[in-house]
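Exercise 7. Given the encoded structure of a 330-residue chain, write a plausible sequence.
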């Protein structure tokens, strides 16, 4: 084995998921006589950054423009006695694997390079990789086992604005998650930004009106995973501060932000919330439910307070605490 020439190769690859599918490249017949799929990627040119290399290789092998995360995992494989370039060598492969993503509306993948190491590109079911029915190189299974979705926690502030049995709602555009559904006006809070000032800004951008932010009604949160609008595989946690707010009675509603996540604003009848005409996110029904419950609690508190300060009926007290009168004694 010591007489074999030594070959060390450094390559960069990416795990790119879309829901229950993974983007893979099929090795060309010059590499494998049988069907065999691998992660998109390839060898680094001398002096080339691994991040630049993997983005370049993904485009050459799939025709797609990808982005990759800030961190990567490194896999090392010592392959003594394998064939390379028509001869047997003592090979050492170092694979740098990033988590990557392509736009959610990206076209179908296709091979761009001519005469390269891959002959096809496709979104393949992850289930087929895991059950072994799709032939893949070992790196694919290893990288999938180590993959974790990008974790994103987002703090946002929303306004519950009610008027004459209507609630002010905004519709999510095609650029946002849950496109076509209605939600409370509001949005993400910038780093160092006051939630109240951030909410005023968001209402102005999404509804075109100023607002007066009142008390904090409740804190709502949700946790889910999947493909984000950017195309990235995400583990998302949203924390929502819900404030009671007011807008001017004569305000004219209109969306001011351009190419944002809101494409419409309207006063929605409370009776229509959650219907087919007005599908809403959970934060809307949660806010309305809490508002009703708080109103009932306050009503009960006011009734209890009035009862505590009700004038004492002295006749009742005297009748209950005094000795029986003459008629009763008889």
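Solution.
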């Amino acid at each position: 084995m010591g007489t074999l020439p030594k070959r060390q190769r450094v390559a960069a690859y990416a795990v790119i998921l879309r829901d229950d599918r993974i983007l893979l490249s099929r090795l060309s017949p010059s590499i494998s006589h049988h069907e065999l799929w691998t992660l998109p990627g390839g060898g680094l040119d001398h002096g080339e950054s691994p991040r630049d290399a993997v983005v370049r290789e993904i485009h050459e092998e799939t025709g797609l423009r990808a982005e990759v995360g800030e961190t990567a995992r490194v896999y090392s494989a010592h392959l003594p006695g394998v064939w390379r370039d028509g001869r047997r060598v003592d090979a050492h492969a170092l694979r740098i694997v990033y988590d990557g993503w392509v736009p959610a509306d990206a076209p179908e993948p296709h091979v761009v390079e001519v005469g390269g190491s891959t002959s096809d590109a496709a979104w393949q079911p992850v289930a087929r990789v895991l059950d072994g029915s799709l032939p893949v190189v070992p790196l694919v299974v290893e990288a999938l086992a180590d993959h974790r979705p990008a974790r994103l926690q987002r703090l946002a502030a929303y306004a519950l604005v009610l008027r004459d049995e209507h609630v002010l709602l905004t519709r999510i555009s095609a650029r946002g998650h849950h496109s076509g559904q209605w939600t409370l006006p509001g949005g993400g809070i910038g780093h160092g930004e006051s939630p109240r000032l951030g909410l005023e800004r968001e209402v102005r951008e999404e509804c075109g009106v100023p607002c007066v932010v009142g008390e904090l009604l409740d804190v709502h949160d949700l946790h889910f995973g999947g493909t984000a609008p950017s195309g990235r595989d995400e583990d998302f946690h949203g924390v929502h501060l819900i404030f009671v707010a007011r807008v001017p009675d004569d305000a004219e509603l209109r969306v001011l932000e351009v190419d944002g996540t809101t494409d419409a604003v309207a006063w929605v009848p409370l009776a229509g919330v959650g219907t087919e005409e007005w599908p809403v996110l959970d934060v809307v029904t949660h806010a309305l439910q809490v508002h009703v419950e708080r109103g009932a609690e306050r009503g009960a508190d006011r009734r209890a307070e009035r009862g505590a300060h009700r004038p004492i009926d002295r006749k009742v007290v005297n009748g209950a605490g005094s000795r029986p009168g003459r008629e009763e004694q008889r």
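Remark. Residues 314-330 have pLDDT under 50 and may be disordered. Students should compare their own answers with the one above.
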